[in-house]
Amino acid sequence: MPTTERTARLKNRCRFKHVAGGEYVDPGVKAGVERARLITQAHKENIGEPTSIIRAKGLENILKKITIHIQDDELIVGANTEHPDYFPMYPELSYFSTMDMVESHYCDHKEEMAEIAEYWKPYTIQRKAEKYFTPEEIGIMYSATTVQPPMFVTAFSSIVPNYESVIEDGLLKRIEVVEQKIADAEEEIRKSPWNAPEKLHYLDKIDQWQAMLIAMKAVVGWAQRHARLAKIIAENFLTDPKRKEELLEISDICRHVPAYPARGLKDAMQSKWFTFLLCHSIERYSSGYGHKEDKLLWPFYKKSVIEKNEQPMTREEAVELFECERLKVSEHGSTKGRQLREFFAGSNDLFILTLGGINPDGSDASNDCTNAILEAAENIVTTEPSIAFRWNEKGNVETKKRVFNCIKKGFGFPSIKNDELNTQQLIKYFNVPEEIARDWALVLCMSPGITGRRGTQKTRSEGGSDVYPAKVMEIALTNGFDEFFTNMQLGPETGNAEEFTSFDQVWEAVKLQLRYAIELSLRSKDVGRIMESRYLCCPFISSIDDGCVEKGLDGNELAEVANPWHNIIGGSVVVVDSMAAIKKLVFDEKKYSMKELMDALRNNWEGKEEMRLDFWNAPKFGNDDPYADEIATKYYDLIADEWKRNTTYSGTFPLPLAQSVAGYIVNGPKTNATANGRHAGEALDDGGISPYMGCDKNGPTAVLKSVSKINGSKHKGILLNQRLSTVLMNSDAGFDLWHAYMKTWHGLGIDHVQFNVISSEEMKAAQIEPEKHTDTLVRIAGYSAKFIDLARYSQDTIIARTEQDLAAG
Amino acid sequence: MPKCEKCTFFFPIPEKDMDFEPGKGDCVEQQQDTKGKFWLSKPVSENSEACQRYRPRN
């Protein structure tokens, strides 16, 4: 139940922006045009200026002129569009993505937006980057079969903003710092004698710093617009004295932040929200909600809730504020093309915040702010933002009980990450000092990245993008040609499987196809990164990073802390199980030939049910079966080794990250029948290492033992979905059983686990009477969604997951 | 034609604010739909010709 009448009202009228079946669920959702119109106007007026200045003036024009709004009952104000039902558009990023929206029913200004899209066509990141690829490479990438289409066409990015510097410093102080940097540079270039190699680099830096000034001043002005609006509403439109008082306080807060350091929790929350809007959806679009919220807000929570010396409030008022935050995120509109809307089935965007873990000094980082955030999530029951909990053995039991409470209610979150393993990864692979590494948060669903005042991830060109392994294996058996979906040559010619005479040949073909997909995808990211640095400067994002300010560099260009990673999405376990079946039935037992197998796969096992069952019943990952697990170990080592061959923009090799979002659903229909006994078109495995649906038959500990054989330290993350019994989790012994399971999980050094706690009966009932199950949530993979908003095909994949009995061991 | 500056919904921007420009003000509009009330604000010039929502200030 919502904590207060206000949050009950806000939830009841929430303008949710989540999607189902690739479309926004709420019929009122529309594409806003003001951002696109204003950035275009500024671009036309400033063409010829340095790119950083053009970009800053674009942001300035948006913030000065966009229609702002405040809704009734809100405690946190600000949005990314001109109307609370809208999402913004970004014509400077991708022509295809913009036209996708223009041609959709979401766009009511088709003529104007088509004109804007045409104007931007030569300036888009898409046009700038495409010329470095052959038409064949473009065809492969845009087909979304073996790799995700690149950022320069999807416009999809991700970021961890430097919230700390805004909340701790305030922008006016940062403006002073940047002005001093310009003054120092001006003095430096006038020193005698003239030395070009030492002085000329200041020209670009001065442009970057000037751009940062324009951006920060515009942001302060935009916050002041909200301050004025709140005051105008209070003084001219309302009679309710309580709401008038609230609005006058909101006005005071917006006048204070982000211009000045936050005083208490209300300031910090508002300053954080403004910064989120700017970095994730106004300056450019970037997915995510990456921050360590309990660490960031704890000093202000202490001042307001515990010590009550700044913006004093009760604990209940703090919980209400966190509930308001969850609703604000739920109605935040994100802009995605159809491929991504389908990939995030049931969700709005990948909003994931991080809690728990330890502090830089090694003490337990869970505090009462952590508990209040979890309590708000438990009360308000929204799918977004999702929560990741860093499980450290030092973590206190009270907080872990609150984590359990959310999980047992079936939210699917918090998802749990192994704190020690993920901290060590940042230290070992990316040379992050230990005290900084200990403040990590998830960038998106699964990947840890640093938080704080400098060096955080600024673009998905650093970490992100996908390779789709099941399709890669499919074409490894057909000489690199996709016979099933595109009729295109998607990879190198590595031979037809009918001619393979050893298991090593199968393995080699998969390796070479994987190598091609990885390298094409990495190259597209790094080409995109260069284009972002040249043409998509982000002066505000840069202005709040201490490193960018110090060095006079744009955040896209500066890779102060490398964090490269790359997703391997949905299908890894299909590959493992298929390889195990091929090895056993074709090469060990010689029961079938490769030709017989390929004929059966091409015919979707038609007339070969007995043969299919042989392959279906071959050793499967997730049962602590050495035969399948040995192949799994070899496969996960292979993908780590294949990524390790490469060096990316930030100077090191990326780590793979096995997960699936809804890719296991979307990519299933694009993938032919597979040798694990799966039919063509059926869903793939639903995580990064989750056993295939219904194939884990030996209980939860056997799953953990199989997973623990994989060397997780070579990976950025490996997603494990588990489904637990509702009866057991809600019994008196529920917490103790789950806690014992978690200790086993932690002791085995496994990276991740997340849970669905919902019965098949409830899901089937929701399929029949969806109107009675509006708050039934389920975990997809990396995010949660309302069960009723999923397509029947997706719902059935969750029902098909094995329900584990913790008591059975 | 009446000008925005005479409208009840026109609020001049204070000189101390970052986006101050002489003659510029906030045009504030209350709206209500099935999901509740909200207020919109967009910048206008006091010399702009008033829109259909024009209501003269008392």
TrEMBL record, chain B:
The keyword S-adenosyl-L-methionine does not apply. It is an enzyme of class 4 (lyase). It comes from the Bacteria. Signal peptide: none annotated. GO terms for molecular function: benzylsuccinate synthase activity. The keyword Lyase applies. Its EC number is 4.1.99.11. Keywords: Lyase. Pfam families: BssC_TutF. This is Benzylsuccinate synthase BssC. It comes from Desulfotignum phosphitoxidans DSM 13687. The lineage of its organism: Bacteria, Pseudomonadati, Thermodesulfobacteriota, Desulfobacteria, Desulfobacterales. The gene is bssC.
